[in-house]
Amino acid sequence: MSCIIKYNRIEIVHRESILMPILKDGDSPLSQSTQNIYGGQAVIEGVMFAGRNANVTAVRRKNNEIKFYEVPRKTTPWIQKLKKIPLVRGVVAILESSAKGSQHLNFSMESYAEDELEEGKDESAAAKTEEKKGWSLSMIVGVAVAGIISFIAGKLVFTVVPALIEQLIFGHAFKNIIVHNLLEGAIKILFLLSYLYIISLTPLIKRLFQYHGAEHKVISAYEAGAELTVSNVQRFTRLHYRCGSSFIVFSVLVGIVVYSFFHWDSLWERVYLRVLLLPVVLGFSYEALRLTNSMRELPVLRFLGYPGLWLQKLTTKEPTDDQVAVSIASFNRVLELDRQGVQS
C-alpha cells in the first residue's frame, strides 16, 4: 500500500485486497433504528460515500488499482443549527452536498485524465498535446451534460426556462394560473426526461449512471444487513428512495403547488416569483423526500416515492461486477473510518 499526503488530503492506492468485506454477517447486523444513514454520489469511474468522520471516494484506474480520496468531515456549529430547522435544513444540506461533492468529482476527473495521458505516452509530442486539449474539452462537456455543475445556476435554468416556454406557447390561452402551473410542470418533466435520456446515450455518462446504480445497491445491501460481497450486492435493486433523482421530481411537483398561491400579471413577474420562491420550493421538496422515505414501508403510502423511483430508471444503470466492487471498497473504507472514530 502506498500513501501520498497532498494538499491536506490522503490518497491511498491498494490492489484488490481492499475488497475483502469489512461488514460480515455476524459483525453488526444493525436494525434500521440503530443504523447510520449513509448517502453518496457517482463520480467518474468511481463512487463517493459520506460517513460520520470522512467522505471517501474510490475510483478504479486503468491498471485495475483502486485509488482513494478521503476528506475529513468538519462540523461547523452554525451550519449544524440550521440543519435542525425544517425547510431551512433542506437548502443548507443541498448546497453543502453540492460544494463537497465537487471536490470528489474533481479528484475522479484528475485520476481519469491521468490514465488517458499515460495511455498516450508513446505518441508524438504534437499528438499528445492535441490529445490533452481534446480531453480537457471532453471532460468539461461531460461534466456539464451530467448536471455536475453549479447547483444554483442549473436549478435557475431548469426553473426559468420552462416558465418562459409555457408563457410563449400558452400565455394567452388560459386565465387560470393553476392551469398554467400544471402546464409549466409538464414542460419541466418533458424537458428533464429528454435531457436525461439524451445524455445517457453517451459512453461517459452511461458509465457514470452505472456507478450511480452501484452506489444504490451497496446502500440497500447495507441497510438490509447483508454481507457486502459483489454477488450479494448485485441482488439488490439499483433504485433507492433517498436518491437525489427523487428530489428533482419532488421539486417539480412541489413547485406546482407553491406557485399556485402567488398571482402574476406579466412574464417578468412570473419569472421573478419563480426565482424568489426557489428556496421555498427546495425546502418543501427536501421535507417531502424525508417524509416519503420514512413512509416507504407503509403499503398504502409507499406510492408517494414512486415518481422518484421511476426517474431513477433513467439516472441509474445496472452496474458491472467491477463497478460494484469499487462501490463496496469506498463504502467499506467509510465504515472503517467511522469505527475508528467511535473507538477513539
Keywords:
344 residues; alpha+beta; disordered N terminus
Walk me through the structure.
This protein is α+β, with helices and mostly antiparallel strands and 344 residues long. It has one domain (2-343). 60% of the residues lie in helices and 10% in strands. It has twelve helices and six strands. Strands 1-2-6-5-4-3 form a six-stranded antiparallel beta sheet. Strand 3 (39-43) and strand 4 form a beta hairpin.
Layout of helices and strands, plus pairs?
Blueprint: E1 2-6, E2 9-14, E3 39-43, E4 46-50, E5 54-60, E6 66-72, H1 77-82, H2 88-119, H3 125-145, H4 151-170, H5 177-200, H6 203-223, H7 230-234, H8 244-259, H9 267-276, H10 278-294, H11 306-315, H12 321-343
Antiparallel strand pairs: 1-2, 2-6, 3-4, 4-5, 5-6
